[in-house]
Amino acid sequence: MDELHISGDFGLLSKKLKWLSWQNCPLKYIPSNFPAENLVVLDMSGSNMQEFRLNLQCFRSLKKLNLSYCEQLRSLETLLLGGCTSLTEIHPSIGNLDRLIKLDMSRCEKLGDLPSSICQLISLEELFIHHCSSIKTLPDNLGDMKSLTFLYADDTGIKQLPRSVEMLRNLVTLRVGGQELEAKRSISGRGVHRIQYSLLTFVAELSLRYCNLSDADIPRDIGILDGHR
């Protein structure tokens, strides 16, 4: 359907649709009745879309979403992908959304490690990746996200934070930790192994629950966090 201009009732399209390539789509937005439940791949690269109105929680089978070179979407400030349990990959073009303020990818259980281009989101203030158990690492250049204020990465597979986290001078809340299993005191083997960066004196809330840390893993200067909770 690349470059095709169609109109009418999108609800009449087959609900069995699994793969849609609609590059250079001329529509300003996709109608809300678009059948998305069984869609696995959606390629809308180069489209004229100005708004992404679809509720991504309806994309129960989605594994790949490509919105690269959608120049009109650059003004996007909020992107909510939470609960897309079949989503496995974020396209590197996400780094082009330089006005994005909030990005929620929480509870995307099959989502793998984030592309390094996500650190190009210089306006991003809120990043939610909690309950993404397949995310094992954060990009080394995480510190480039100068506006980042809230980072929720608890209940993931992350074992170590990148050294560049020290550069997040606007960070207020940092939550990271291993995945809780059957009971509150159950600890998985995916906890943060060691806090190897200098503690952030500007952090107001630091959560390291279920990290399975020993006394040797806790820096001696933890007491300087006067304002932490």
Question: Mind explaining what this structure looks like?
Answer:
- By secondary structure, the protein is mainly β.
- The protein has strands at residues 19-21, 41-43, 64-66, 78-80, 102-104, 126-128, 150-154, 173-177, 205-207.
- The protein folds into 2 domains: 1-75; 79-179 and 195-228, Ribonuclease Inhibitor (Leucine-rich repeat, LRR (right-handed beta-alpha superhelix), Alpha-Beta Horseshoe).
- The chain contains no helices and 9 strands.
- A 6-stranded parallel sheet has the order 4-5-6-7-8-9, with no helix packed on it. A 3-stranded parallel sheet has the order 1-2-3, with no helix packed on it.
Which short descriptors sum up this protein?
Leucine-rich repeat, LRR (right-handed beta-alpha superhelix), 3-stranded parallel β-sheet, 6-stranded parallel β-sheet, 229 residues, 2 domains, mainly beta, single chain
Going across the major beta sheet, what is the strand order? 4-5-6-7-8-9
> How many domain modules?
2
Instruction: Determine the number of helices (DSSP H or I, runs of at least 4 residues).
Output: 0
Rg, rounded, reads: 20 Å
Name the CATH architecture of the largest domain.
Alpha-Beta Horseshoe
What is the approximate shape?
A: globular
Span from first to last CA? Answer: 53 Å
Share of helical residues = under 10%
Give a short summary of the structure:
The chain is mostly beta strands and 229 residues long.
